[in-house]
Amino acid sequence: MRPHGPLSPAAKPYSLALVLALLYAALVVHASLYPFSGWRYQGVALWAFLQAPWPVHWTVFDVATNLLAYVPLGLWLTVAVARHGSRRRAAGVGLLLPCLLSLGLESAQGLLVQHRVPSQVDWLLNTVGAALGVGLALWLLSSRWMARWSAFHQTGLVPQTCGAPLLLALWPLALVYPTSVPFGLGQIWPRLERTLYDWTEGSFLQPWLPTPMPELPLSPLTEAIVVALCIWAPLLLGYAVLRRVGQRFVFLLLALGLGLAALLLSASLTWGPTHAWAWLTPSASLGLSFAVALALLSLALGHRAAAVLSLLAWVLALALLNRAPEVPYFAQSLQIWEWGRFIQLHGLSQWLGGLWPFAALWVGLRLALRPAPGQVYNRRA
């Protein structure tokens, strides 16, 4: 039989950091080269932007975006490489690879004539951001934060979390992308349907596709139910891996706070700070109240029961959400993000917002089917 002893304190954070670095690098590539159309060679060397004059016009938003975008990549690469080598080597890799990645992407943007303009300033800001990530990683490695996380992972979480902590950490980031219903992540069917029809236009496959049917908008009560389910389901996922009721209550407060902050940030970026609370309609307020009540009543649930209820909540929420049409203001919000100053964030936030619930379904299913541990967890506060 295979031993069931705990993992070494160092194994889990480092391996997780490598997965995070690879996934984040893929998302950076997508965000940097979106919309992947309009490619054309202009007869100029792709690295000519390095000798071009510095841009005259710039905004604080552009500087902050290019600087902060590469901080996680430098951080996770440094932590991942530190497992197999010295910290000096890890710092070198954490700085060099993002620097080369940014240089390659800026060069490739020279082929996207209509959508992107390569800039040596962007490359320098990306490199500085990676350096900040390396510095943060070295500080974390030399401090006690890694040891504290390892201790909490062993005493505060169930033995097999199946990636739930990582997924829950990404939930507020996924909420930054505009949604037609507050907290309503995963409404991908309308856009997927349009994409399928565009791809198969004029081919023999198009008659095989389902005929689009006009959908009625969600009623105020149904919208409130969707909002409640889309909040309750992630909270249940957290309950499924946390051992004690007290920890679950703290997680409830933290998750709700970060979720509300993400929606406020999204509305502020899209419509301006004066409209930060525009999403809080009567239906959204009712749904938020329902979610808080359900989350409080669920604090004492068993781990498997919480995982199963999370699955059921997501299935119902996605079924209702994907049958609803996209409202006009939602389409306008997407246009602002796709073709405005948020084009660099569009790819990353779109993938997170669209795929997060389906990743939660997969993680919840694994949690529901995991073997019962050989010990009874104390769920007292």
Keywords:
381 residues, mainly alpha, 2 domains, 64% helix, 0% strand, disordered C terminus, transmembrane, membrane, transmembrane helix, VanZ-like
Ranges where pLDDT stays below 50 over 5 or more residues in a row are 1-13, 339-343, 374-381
**Helicity, as a percent range:** 55-70%
Instruction: Return the structural class.
Output: mainly alpha
- Which word captures the global form? globular
Rounded to the nearest angstrom, the radius of gyration is 23 Å
N-to-C span: 34 Å
Number of helices: 14
Q: Tell me the number of structural domains.
A: 2
Helix and strand pattern: HHHHHHHHHHHHHH
Tell me about the largest β-sheet: none
Q: Tell me the β content.
A: under 5%
- What's the mean pLDDT score? 78
Count of β-strands: 0
Explain the overall architecture.
With 381 residues, the chain is mostly helical. The protein has two domains: 11-155, no CATH class; 164-369, no CATH class. The protein has helices spanning 11-33, 60-68, 71-81, 87-108, 120-142, 145-155, 164-175, 189-199, 220-239, 245-271, 282-297, 303-321, 328-339, 343-369. α3 packs antiparallel against α4 and α7 packs antiparallel against α14. The two termini are 34 Å apart. The relative contact order is 0.12. Residues 1-13, 339-343 and 374-381 have low confidence and may be disordered. It holds the Pfam family VanZ. Keywords: Membrane, Transmembrane, Transmembrane helix. The chain crosses the membrane at residues 55-78, 90-111, 123-141, 162-185, 224-242, 249-271, 277-299, 306-324, 348-369.
